[in-house]
Amino acid sequence: MNIQMIEAAATRASGITRRTPLLSAQALDAIAGRRVLVKPECLQHTGSFKFRGAWSALTALPEDQRAKGVIAFSSGNHAQGVALAAQKLGVPAVILMPSDAPAAKIDGTRSYGAEVVLYDRGRESREKIGAEIAAARDLTLVRPYDDPQVIAGQGTCGLEIAEQATETGVTEADVLICCGGGGLTAGIALALEARAPGLRPRPAEPAGFDDTARSLLSGQRETNAKEAGGLCDAILTPSPGEITFPINARLCGPGIVVTDDEVLQAMALAARHLKVIAEPGGAAALAAALFHGTEIAGDTVICTISGGNLDPDLLIRALSG
Amino acid sequence: MNIQMIEAAATRASGITRRTPLLSAQALDAIAGRRVLVKPECLQHTGSFKFRGAWSALTALPEDQRAKGVIAFSSGNHAQGVALAAQKLGVPAVILMPSDAPAAKIDGTRSYGAEVVLYDRGRESREKIGAEIAAARDLTLVRPYDDPQVIAGQGTCGLEIAEQATETGVTEADVLICCGGGGLTAGIALALEARAPGLRPRPAEPAGFDDTARSLLSGQRETNAKEAGGLCDAILTPSPGEITFPINARLCGPGIVVTDDEVLQAMALAARHLKVIAEPGGAAALAAALFHGTEIAGDTVICTISGGNLDPDLLIRALSG
């Protein structure tokens, strides 16, 4: 993994992925006690950054292999990213999704033309089902984070952050990144290392699913006690990725761990002051920026809103809080 | 009014106003029956396009006059735009707001450091109160739409639409614009005339407050029966502006009139598929794009979401619909 791979992914994505703006609001600065700059990847195609990695991975495949189709597992955002990338490239996509994924994500994935196969998260192995379908139909598996081309695609978000921070006159700041398997974190970290070394990437995770924060402390890949059941469905992974973790261990500052309550408040504040919809997992970094100021250095903090796909009831719950 | 004034406003706004992206979602295309491109000015500073016009007007004032301060009347979006522009320029601002304006807008205006003076919309004349305060303190009145420099500032949104449509390969389309007094419509219309003549500006208004649509038909400035009470608080004006109407009469296609129900649906769809918050008046053009397809020409339609400032209860109502 290197910056050239990220730049190549950016070239392949030119005119396709959306350059999301950098947002801010004085009311958020007042809460955080420092300037807060927000990268709203909820505005990316499919409503999350995952389209970047999916597009990168699919466009990096040899054409004959890609034409046979792709398969992915996902609770929803990677699913939609792969589905739309496949649709735009005119190739088939099969997506394995847990049957308890948010309806908005299942519907969204189907709407991009993918074949959705549901499985029972508690009783069935998605790896086994996926391997069987992939073998039977000669499909290429697109992993959600442990794939160098996926990480390179997510890194294009980091290139934009580096450029936009520079345009805004910010050369030193913590960059808080919503972290599940660590693909977005690793991609951004690599981009910042090369293009904005004064910006320090740091993962933000929900309590109970802080495997990356603990792994950064211990120096090895730690595991969460639970595998599901948290509010932040998009970023609940059992442990840091094999490829992502060494990158993040080398480049990231300490992780920040937020509560579900802080996440709900951050969702409401994003709606009120930034006019964007964050899903719970997408609001973890903003929650860290707003409510964990004592753990953050400097007069400016940058954070991602990594996605905005959620069922309306949950948004109403956050807004009613 | 000419394109040079808009370009000069864009130069003065460089690095200050936000270049909002052009968003889209396949689900909206499917509802509309054509491609829908959305310019989300709810992501502009202060949550609406009004900051563009306010910044343009204040930066066009002679420095000694500006230093004495400015005054504006507004139900909320122009208020916040002028307040933030004044704050950034370090000059005082007094804003007259109706006491029944959304709390979010009154709070927002105060948060930008303006002195807010509330008046009773039914019993008091804002013109009279405003003239008294302006005379007593030697403040410059910044009108919400009938001011060439305000229109020039709103026109910077049209320059961006022209550029972004070109980048997207769109050269012919209707451009639907949420229309109150007609400042945004006139500014965009002038910018498109010069930079993207195949794009046709058209105002979108709520039923009962369709003064511009009726005025475009009759060729003279018509008045609404009611002055307030509609859902779309941001775009309820008694009649088209004196300066804006001749521009819009020359350049706009027919107006489109939407129902409050269509507006609420458009708000919910913007949240669900674009991940942005539209206030009712800000969703009128999207409602027109989605639900008035038979009145629209071409395979692509562009529409503004002109603002996103609203009380959470109303957003919850739209999401629950």
Automatic annotation (TrEMBL), chains A, B:
Organism field: Antarctobacter heliothermus
Molecular function GO terms recorded: ATP binding; L-serine ammonia-lyase activity; magnesium ion binding; pyridoxal phosphate binding; serine racemase activity; threonine deaminase activity; threonine racemase activity
Family: Belongs to the serine/threonine dehydratase family.
EC number: 4.3.1.19
One Gene Ontology biological process: D-serine biosynthetic process
Cofactor or coenzyme needed: pyridoxal 5'-phosphate; Mg(2+); Ca(2+); Mn(2+)
Pfam family, one: PALP
Entry-linked InterPro entries: Ser/Thr_deHydtase_PyrdxlP-BS, TrpB-like_PALP, TrpB-like_PALP_sf
UniProt keyword annotations, A-Z: Lyase, Magnesium, Pyridoxal phosphate
Protein name: Hydroxyectoine utilization dehydratase EutB
Domain Tryptophan synthase beta chain-like PALP per the UniProt entry, residue ranges: 17-307
Major enzyme class: lyase
Superkingdom per UniProt: Bacteria
